[in-house]
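Contributing new complexes? Match this layout with zinc ion.
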Amino acid sequence: MSNLRNSYEKLLKGNQNWVEKKLKLNPKYFDELSKGQSPDYLWIGCSDSRVPDNEVTGSNPGEIFVHRNIANMVVHTDINMLSVLQYAVEVLHVKHIIVCGHYGCGGVVAAMQRSDNGLVNNWLRNIKDVIYWNKSELENISDVQQRADRLVELNVLQQVKNLAKTSIVQQAWKKHELELHGWVFDIRSGKIIELDAKFDEIEDLDPIFKYAD
Ligand SMILES: [Zn+2]
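Output block (do not edit by hand):
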């Protein structure tokens, strides 16, 4: 069998093993899973294959509603992200939204450079804005890796702010409790770092971004 076929078959075989393992532990596992979901969390993370939400948090299928894109961005014209956000907040009534970035993020590193990457330039532009807004802080960090790490943190903080600027989150704050959180997954230690990005009320926002009642 070719390597190409092997790498593909590996996943299907993996699925068979997983199903067997789950049923061994609990014969009713899939009966229960198929009943529906009521996750407490919405996870907005990076597409990077090294940051799987369930695995790094020790949680299970059914616990985290997920949206992932390059560099865990909350872009206010992204209908995909907004649809996930609206469903998570208004239908599933999640209690927490977590934006999780990670050190060693390829999207963040690419945004720090001047190379022309074609279409993806337009996505990375949102990170270039974060660089521009924090220029003096970032320029004072001489070590390139440390500068990239700090940008990962600043980018997460900005995306949490972007969530707070949506009418979806602001409406939810008026009706029920919802907390926004910013995390960084430290890919070098496996640990999650909580950033000081806790938004839980509209008062934390600049007035220009607050929608009227
Ligand atoms: Zn990434």
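Reviewers usually confirm one structural detail per submission. For this one: The chain has two domains: 1-35, 37-209.
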